[in-house]
Amino acid sequence: MRTRRVIAIGAAMLAVAASVVAGPAPAQAVQVTGLTATIALNNCSGALVRYPTSVDSDRAMLLTNGHCYEGGFINAGVVLQNRTSSRTGTLLGNTGNSLGTVRADKLIYATMTNTDVALYQLTQTFAQIKTSFNTTALTIAGTHPADGAAMTIPSSYWKQVWTCTINGFVPTLREDQWTWHDSIRYNTGCQTTHGTSGSPIVSSANNTVIGINNTGNDDGARCTLNNPCEVDANGNVTVVQGQSYGEQTYWFTTCLNSSRAIDLTIAGCLLTKPAGTGNTVTVTNPGAQTATVGTAKSLQISASSSGSGQTLTYSATGLPAGLTINSSTGLISGTPTTAQTTTSTVTATDTTGASGTASFGWTVTGGGGGTCSGQKLLNPGFESGATSWTGTTGAIGQWASQGQPARTGTFSAWLLGYGSTHTESISQSVTIPAGCSATLTFYVHIDTAETTTTTAYDKLTVTAGSTTLGTLSNLNKATGYQAKTYSLNAFAGQTVTLKFNGTEDSSLQTSFVLDDLAVTVS
Fold first, then answer.
1. Span of the secretion signal (predicted)?
2. What is the value of pTM for the model shown?
3. Is 262 contained in some domain?
4. pLDDT one-digit tens code per residue, 239-268
5. Dist CA 117 CA 247 (whole Å)
């Protein structure tokens, strides 16, 4: 949970882009040192940086996010280079003390496509910065960071530091119109917040900049603004509410010429090129496709690059359930499992990073199975223990002796109730027959030590796949069990995972006790 401090924000600030809106900082941000060489901007965080090859007579540089650009969010596909700028920021010392103002005279490079970065040239050299402020710039690492690496994220905006680790890399991360690649996933619990955008990700091992803090999923929504989603090579989308991400920065070092200037034409340069430069990748549109549930289907995607000797890799979104794409060959294959109508987008990318897409529709008929009657959940009242359920070990049990009796029978699912930061969940997949109406019902008892009548500190979110059906919280506390009902009509003809996910903040317990669940079709 995010800390309970209330930050007063003026009306003008509320109108600025998402990275500007200053929400409360999470409890993980507890350090008050480690802010050396960070630069506080009017809407974001930033850092004083240098390349591994920089010399003291070079102009100093300011690194932040592309979405922190003073001209506003940069549209997808746009790259800005060598633009006049008069941006200013406050250079901070180790404890967040102000050392003075630094000023840019040029935007060297900025984009929100494939990555999310903005790099400015300052009016002073590294040597002059050292003389004026007794501060040495952070060095951008020249290599890809390692999974599991320990790191800090110093936010000059909040004057706080997050201590985290890398939890893998995301091949494709999407948010609204923007797509990023090889994004850095943070460990669970490392939840940066608005205002930390542009903060450097600093290696705990050698104090080099290994990335830049970018975004996080606020509400659990799917691929929308402030709600990024992970997309794998087969087009499968994963959404994790509260998950935060950063972007790579070593890419800068792959594009430097002998004068230590960015040159996007250098072989192996990973930074995004402006539209109209580089190779052109063309994907042949295969046209509308049909398939049948339970019958194998294959479709070969054809694509080419204008560059010689290029190897293509393939990915896809929106494929029918049961189908995947081979990332090396572009062959879509598998056996459809769900009757549905969907639109797929296939992307082919060559070794220079140039890509092309093709979108086409699918109609999958048949399947769904079953009749429109009955209850579809297995072990709906938990009387067989955890059988047919997945999630937090030990959540399902007999809790009457601990003051949480079941509604009926002796078993129930008790989520949270610790009075400290915890996340617990249970889930089960269920098939809704095609052409049927379906309803999820369950009973929940909520008790809490929270005394507020206005703020939801502890929450239980009910989802069907990536769709949030509803959210309960400490504000819904009540004596005894209360019945809840949600429609599942939108999932007819599909197999969907129902999940009950609870999150509890750092103090004052809230218990969510579930019993007598049912998915009834008619």
1. 1-29
2. 0.55
3. no
4. 999 999 999 999 999 999 999 999 988 888
5. 8
